[in-house]
Write a structure and sequence with these properties.
By secondary structure, this protein is α/β, with parallel strands linked by helices. The chain has eight helices and nine strands. Helix content is 42%, strand content 19%.
Length: 202
């Protein structure tokens, strides 16, 4: 089991999708969510889109490895889906936040946990703006949430600072192959990352 976490816009989902293209034995667990489907998203491929009542029923039946509420919508990882893929001999990537990661690590102590950091908050803001799918208010909410999320990076086994996508992908491949991390959590200057660095390269 491989846990990937990051603030929105740091590149976590893109890295996960790229890694499964190069590793046939690796799959991304498809989460259940109560949020609305965006243009181009496919049910059962991007997410399992369900209503609040169905989600609450799944919680009551203890069907989630983890779940969380994010911006008023629920997201959860199906226990049965993840375990079935593992039984098929697949490495399963969980694209989840720090709250979910904490729950999964408690249930599966040998899961590999990796946190993706942006080079700076200013660069993260630019990436969110370039996606062009959120309002200014939503972007500001995501930026505030990012600071809180990034404070949990030290709970993870490994950290990748996503400066260049191709290099970050190579580092992720190394970690999945069992290599030691190039950057230890103790080497990250989170104060600089969040509050000082202002250089933005477009």
């Amino acid at each position: 089991m491989i846990i990937l976490s990051a603030p929105s816009g740091a590149g976590k989902t893109s890295l996960a999708r790229a890694i499964v293209q190069s590793r046939p034995s690796t799959v991304i667990s498809i989460s259940h969510t109560t949020r609305d489907r965006r243009a181009g998203e496919v049910n059962g491929q991007d997410y399992f889109f369900i209503d609040d009542s169905t989600f609450q029923d799944m919680i009551a039946r203890n069907e989630f490895l983890e779940y969380a509420e994010v911006f008023g919508r629920y997201y959860g990882t199906s226990r049965l889906q993840a375990e079935n893929r593992q039984d098929d001999g697949m490495d399963v990537i969980l694209d989840i936040d720090w709250q979910g990661a904490r729950k999964v690590r408690h249930l599966i102590p040998d899961a590999l946990s990796i946190f993706i950091l942006p080079p700076s908050l200013e660069i993260l803001r630019v990436r969110l703006l370039q996606r062009g799918r959120d309002s200014d208010d939503v972007i500001e909410a995501r930026m505030k949430k990012a600071i809180s999320e990034m404070s949990h990076y030290s709970e993870y086994d490994c950290v990748i600072v996503n400066r260049e996508f191709s290099e970050s992908l190579k580092e992720l491949e190394r970690l999945l192959d069992g290599a030691s991390p190039s950057i230890k959590t103790t080497e990250i200057d989170i104060e600089k990352l969040v509050f000082i660095e202002k250089t933005v390269r477009l």
